Amino acid sequence: MKNTVSKRKKHYTVGGITWIIVEYASLIFFGLCALLPVISCVITAFKTEEEYRSTNVMTLPENWLNFDNFIKAFKTANMGQAFLNSVIVMVCVLLVSVIIGTQLAYVLNRFQFPGNGLIRNLFLFASLLPGVAMQVTVFKIMTALGFVNHLYGYIIMMCGTDVISIYIFIQFMENIPISLDESAIIDGASYFKIYWKIMLPLLKPAIVTSCILKGVGVYNEYYAAQLYLLDKKLHTIARSLYTFVGPMGSQYNLICAGVIISLLPALIVFILCQKQIYSGIAAGAVKG
């Protein structure tokens, strides 16, 4: 009997160790698969034109202190102006999206009126439509309004209702007790004051989650920027990276240097605000 128990314990221990090894090995493998393109991009960014043509993508550069590609990419692609344009667009879009999204979610969640369910279903239907399929109509509207090749026109277009954010706000509001609204109404607060003083502060975790999703999409957006921002002075950071792509070939060492430059601001923001980002996502996932 004792031998059987000891064999079971030994078998369980060996099986547990084996499973742990497989688990960590798979994590390391998939982690390397995710990091491999980034590593390749960093290696290519430090190579000269001759090194890039004569070596493979994983061959290390001879000089790691060669920043000529970064300087050339920054100047040639006018990335300083592109950064400024991207920041202006992202800040304006996030502000408008959060204000409109939270107000729509407040109305749809707190007020029951004819057509409430229809509006929610229309939002869901709109999220199923591919954006590319509607670009012909959108382009005609942008052209008729004179918004093409203007930064404010691009901002207005990007401020379109974000359905995913609205549903995040609605789901989060469903966990906020209505008694808070009733108490504020008894104290004489208006509906707008309830939204501004009570709802909006409580929606901070959902707002952080929404801003991350929307901000990443706006910062990396290329198709609409290529279509509506024709002037080089209006290019966003994603659009500026395609300066080195042309019919005569692509300068991938400069492209990789530009990619690393474009990643630095997002990396700095993440390092400085990672506690707020993690807490916002966690709270939004639990309460929403």
List the helices and strands and how they pair.
Layout: H1 2-45, H2 49-54, H3 68-76, H4 79-110, H5 116-128, H6 135-145, H7 151-158, H8 163-173, H9 179-186, H10 191-202, H11 204-219, H12 223-228, H13 237-240, E1 245-246, E2 249-250, H14 252-272, H15 274-287
Antiparallel strand pairs: 1-2
Helix pairs in contact: 1-14, 3-14, 4-7, 4-8, 4-11, 8-11, 11-15
Could you give the count of β-strands?
2
Q: Cα-atom Rg, whole angstroms?
A: 26 Å
- Spatial ordering of strands, largest sheet: 1-2
Helix content: over 70%
Silhouette = globular
CA distance, first residue to last residue: 52 Å
Major sheet description? 2 strands, antiparallel
User: How would you classify the quaternary structure?
Assistant: single chain
Low-confidence stretches: 5-11, 284-288
**Structural class by SSE content:** mainly alpha
Listing every helix as H and every strand as E from the N terminus to the C terminus, the arrangement reads HHHHHHHHHHHHHEEHH
Query: What number is the mean pLDDT?
Result: 83
DSSP summary: helix tally:
15
Beta percentage is: under 5%
